[in-house]
Amino acid sequence: MKKLIMILLLVSFAFGSVYAQIQMSAGGGAFLNADFGNSGFDITVPSYGTAYSEKFKHSGFGLFAFFDITYIEFSLGILWGSVDFSYLDALYYGVIGSATLDMSSIHIGVLGKYPIVINDGFAVFPAVGIDYQIISKLAYEGISMPNYKDLSSLWIRFGGGLNYHFNGPMYIRGTLLYGVKLPSKYENDMKNAVTSDLAIYGYNSTADNVIGNGVQLKFAVGYMF
Hints:
By secondary structure, this protein is of the alpha+beta class. Strands 1-3-4-5-7-9-10-12 form an eight-stranded antiparallel beta barrel. The chain is elongated and about 70 Å long. It has helices spanning 2-21, 185-200, and strands at 24-37, 39-45, 49-69, 72-89, 95-113, 116-119, 122-140, 143-144, 153-167, 170-181, 206-210, 212-224.
């Protein structure tokens, strides 16, 4: 019984120590998304080269709110911007085209981080997490594009940030994240459809996804409970 009581006391102390380090806060701010490279797909035919391709490049500015529990940040934001779309249909029609589409998207993010206190008012943190981008609008010259929600995609992001406490529980947070964009449903479906069409006409093609990448810069003001 004494051993059991001692174990319970040690476990309680351990959980109490962890709980004492947990601090909750919430806030909001602005963020900027900018892709470095296009995402999409390429389809090649042996002895011919690139037969068909589609590429997308996102950029925009948005607002977000966050809830923070020391080591985890949950965020929800909305972004307004554009998508630069380019395509190549060399095998059948020999055309190359491009367009800029108006875009808005909802971002749901979870970020794991490890705060390192530099002094009483300043801390830095490495971070890694995911950001699901839900396309809520995609239009060209006011005309909504069909199946635009299929362009929604998952980003894997990593980087770091800093907190600066400037007035009691109030603090400023800056975060810079590099992201890798996984293929969207549209990109996979369209890649498979074109590959199937080429096979019908006797072309043995190879399809490859082009993985997008870019940065996300966030600036926010938070309040610690």
